[in-house]
Amino acid sequence: MGSTNSLSLFSAIVLTSALAGCGGSSGSSGTSDEGNPTTETPTPVVQMESVSGQIRDYFTGEPVAGALVTLQATNLEEPVEAVSGPEGRFTLDAEEGADRATISSRATGYTTNSMLTSTTEGSDNDNLELSLVPAQLATSFSAETTATLSLENSLPVAEVPANAFRSSNGALYNGSVNTQISALDPSSDPTIIPGNYDFVDTDGQVGLSTSYGAVTFDFTDENGERLQLSDGTPATIRIPLASGLNPFEVPSSVPLAWFDEESGQWVEESMATLVDNRYYEGQVTHFTTWNAADTYTPVEVSGRVVDRDGNPVAGASVRAQGYDYIGMNTTVTNADGTFSVPVREDSQVLISARLDATSNTREITVGAEDYTLDQDIVLWPSAVSITLTWGQNPSDLDSHLLGPNSEAGTSEFHVAFWDKVVTVGDTVIELDVDDVTSFGPEVVTIPDFPYAGRYRYLVHLFAGTGTIENSPARVEFSINGETRIFSPQNAQGSVSDWWAVADIIVDETGDVRLEAVQEWSEQGEEMVFGFSLNNRSNPAVEAAKRKYYSENVR
């Protein structure tokens, strides 16, 4: 929330008091050189907005200390900077008033990422979360030599000519170039790339985009200062095609856009060409995050967000995420709880809302016309949302939630793909989204906890090659207004087809806390606090058929 600049306010008070003692009132009065009375206008008080949050590792959720955090906005003459502390926490104080501000962060071992916020009065900037992706390539080379920079999969993502870099003062740089590069695959999570998907084309027209893949390039000198290409010195870059896309259905060429950390928009600069159905190749004149992207024709999705009693909720964040395309957009509800958010026409979309509470995730299919939700989106104050994403293989990971089905705790419920909607007491617990074709997301929402006890969330490898550990899987809990991230890399024991992720503990007063389990469970042998997995390890053939043949029509 916004706060007053104490020093400026104090100075204004002292000045006013002094002037009052000299016979002044609302301003100071005196006599000019010509003998005419003059009035001095008081110095305006600058309102400040405090922005705080945490920098975390995208895959593990661990805090990142020592990260440089920068806030930029059009109403600021200079960026505001801070460094994250031991727990990854940061605080920035910036002049209030920007409808759109960009928070960016970079750290040793990680590539830069950015998120959008606002510094207008009343903005919710008390507990922001920005995740950084570990660098896939961290190396150094001499600026005086030609550099071919390749990731682990041997794809050269950049070819930089010799003597191509300049320092921040514009001088030719000939020292060692420290390099951090990550190829970003937004197939399972579109938020892995910076900002939203706002796109500015070469004519200055603003639209929305879908991504085919992105790469972040960070080049710094020996002192950690950013380096850029010299004017007139292009470099060749290659962006791996997002693994969730069919290489035979994507365009042969797409715009190549860079992320502008000041405006928070993707800016088209040139074109990239699809090569060998594997990657997009193009030339760039500076380094940042580059995105192989294209715009689309939008339609509007309209609806209303309410609380559990049916009252409209103002200021809630509504998110629309593509389910059969890579893209997302957000908006904020009006005073009457209504909203309208653009999405790609003729597409499947996931809609959800948050504001100190969370909603179910709703899957809708839109056509070529605007779409109005037939039911309000309900925010549940004590809700927990669990989101599972993974890679291309295994092709199908499944969410499982078990918990007490009675006050005595002598029976259990089990939410999974064969029983997506379960009523426990008066509470409806749902597997909102069930994905069967790699990547996810799968979303489980618990609007309320009917009984005290222990609720366990597990992930099961249902189909495909590889392991959960190497998928890479990622589970995000949204609980008590914060998120916790779990990775199978931290699970204990021998890798198996069952990953016990975490328990939600509900006490007799209804207080909820999250307790990590992080264990591999042997199939057919595990007992989870009285919840047997024996009869769940091999679901009935008819259930499997329903999953793959009845619902896998997209």
Observed structural traits:
Immunoglobulin-like, protease, hydrolase, Chondroitinase Ac, Chain A, domain 3, mainly beta, 4 domains, 5% helix, 554 residues, 2 helices, 5-stranded mixed barrel, 6-stranded antiparallel β-sheet
Overview of the molecule:
Residues 23-44 are annotated as: Disordered. The chain folds into four domains: 47-132, Sandwich (Immunoglobulin-like); 137-295, Chondroitinase Ac, Chain A, domain 3; 299-380, Immunoglobulin-like, CATH 2.60.40.1120; 382-554, sav2460 like domains (Lipoxygenase-1), CATH 2.60.60. It is globular. The model is unreliable at 1-32 and 524-554 (pLDDT under 50). It is built from two helices and 44 strands. The strands form ten sheets. Strands 35-36-37-32-39-40 form a six-stranded antiparallel β-sheet, with no helix packed on it. The protein is mostly beta strands and 554 residues long. Helix content is 5%, strand content 48%.
Give a brief outline of the structure.
This protein is mainly beta and 554 residues long.
What topology emerges from the helices and strands here?
Elements: E1 2-4, H1 6-21, E2 28-31, E3 37-40, E4 47-57, E5 68-73, E6 80-83, E7 89-95, E8 101-106, E9 113-117, E10 128-132, E11 137-142, E12 147-150, E13 156-160, E14 165-166, E15 176-184, E16 198-200, E17 206-220, E18 228-229, E19 235-240, E20 253-260, E21 265-275, E22 279-284, E23 289-295, E24 298-307, E25 317-322, E26 328-332, E27 338-344, E28 347-354, E29 362-366, E30 371-372, E31 377-379, E32 384-389, E33 396-404, E34 412-415, E35 421-424, E36 427-433, E37 442-446, E38 453-463, E39 474-479, E40 482-486, E41 498-506, E42 512-521, E43 527-528, E44 531-532, H2 541-550
Parallel strand pairs: 4-10, 16-21, 24-30, 24-31
Antiparallel strand pairs: 1-4, 2-3, 4-7, 5-6, 5-8, 8-9, 11-15, 12-13, 13-19, 14-18, 15-17, 16-17, 17-23, 19-22, 20-21, 20-23, 21-22, 24-27, 25-26, 25-28, 28-29, 32-37, 32-39, 33-34, 33-38, 35-36, 36-37, 38-41, 39-40, 41-42, 43-44
